[in-house]
Amino acid sequence: MSTSNLNSEIVPSNVTSNGEISFRDGNPVIQFIIGEQDRMLLGQSIRFTGKFRALLSSASSSTSDTSNLAMSEKLGVYSCIDSLTIKSQKTGQTIESIRHYNRFLASYLPVTTSKEDAMGHMYESALILPNYDAHQQSVVNIPSSSSTQNHFCMTLPCGLFNGGEPIPLMPEAVGGLIIELHLAPDTQVFHTSGDADSASYTDSFYQFKDVSLVAELMELDEATTQSLKSRPSGTYEYNSISSYYQTINSGNGIINFQLGLSKVLGVFANIVPSAHINNTLYDGLATLYPTNNDGSSADITELFFTRNGVKFPIDFNINTLQQKNSSNTMAPSQIVEHYMNAIEKFSNIGRTQLNPQNVRLSDDARFDKDFAFGGCGFGIGVAMDNISDAGVDFSNVNFGINMSLGLTSDFPQSFFVFVHSKNTMVYGPQGLQVMT
User: Fold this and answer.
1) CA-CA distance, 123 to 403, in Å (whole number)?
2) Is the pTM above the cut of 0.85?
3) Where are the alpha helices (DSSP H) in 69-119?
4) pLDDT of 51-105, one tens digit each?
5) CA distance 300 to 2
6) pLDDT band per the 50, 70, 90 thresholds, residue 200
7) At 408, is the secondary structure helix, strand, or coil?
8) Cα–Cα distances in Å, from 267 out to 50, 327, 391?
9) Which residues pair with 42 in a beta bridge?
10) Separation CA 70–CA 68 (nearest Å)
11) Distance between CA atoms of 434 and 175, rounded to whole angstroms?
């Protein structure tokens, strides 16, 4: 089989006349169509490119002399993508849909990349810089009254694109792809670095310009193409991320979901107080531990996971140091290790931004705004199958998280739960079906 690769650039199907796109101006979705063709798409080559800038309510560029406007230093431009949806162009069947995409990446990126990665190529590609002040000055606060904009060219991490297998775009297979980026509200992307000036920035907004999607397409030789097209049916196995949301507001936190998935590999969650979401006074994309309304940590003292009401895959309770000593601020190492292991097999993690300094407990009310090492990196999770990689069946049973925590105030905590599983795409004359 002989192949050759072609570079392709796709502009949005809903592009505006001036090339400017923003959530505030009524463009909440950016849609790209990769048409059906006798080629294969290399998912890992996909890049979302364009220009980005932050604007104040006066529609002038943010400037360091007058603005406390800031955004998540660990996410950069990823902060602006609220959900990622991938569908078949031919049938409209959804292949993968990740809601709360920016919060998924708030867990995934710090676990799988190093501080050096974030300061180097990820700053160049996605405007990520793991220092709150440096990020504010170099990404948000660009020169006033100027057309200066930050360029970006970033990957779109997800199960389908991160897989190594080329995606067949033939009409007899997937039939082309529709990729939709749903933008996040401006009040979720931005927050103020001050403590009492959030009202001044409620009308601030971000803007994209000249965006496009670039990718590599694999062109097969004639014999191989005809062989693939002549098959009566085919399958394509890939990983997928599913997202769920729930709140807790008591010292006995219970989360329970009917996942409906048959090959679950891992589950992880990140946390933020519900009052911080869409609130420019706080970083709504921070990944904090549970907190009380005064900013003090609501320490998790006990944690276990269940399958159909039975402890699984860990058959014991995880008890933290804070259970016996509430003044201990050391990171709950067992919780953090299982959390990292749910995202990436722990033995395979060769580089990470998580360390004892940015997962430790703190009673500082500004812990989400100006903390070193890219901000707090706390989360909970558990890997279901790190040996066979076949996954665990949750199609007809519930998954549960049970915890005891020091939540002593009326202050709901939002849990964004993400499930890593395997899916199989089946295509043939009858159309396309995704088996979960």
Assistant:
1) 37
2) yes
3) 101-112, 115-119
4) 999 988 766 666 555 578 899 999 999 999 999 999 999 999 999 999 999 999 9
5) 56
6) confident
7) coil
8) 33, 29, 11
9) 216
10) 6
11) 14
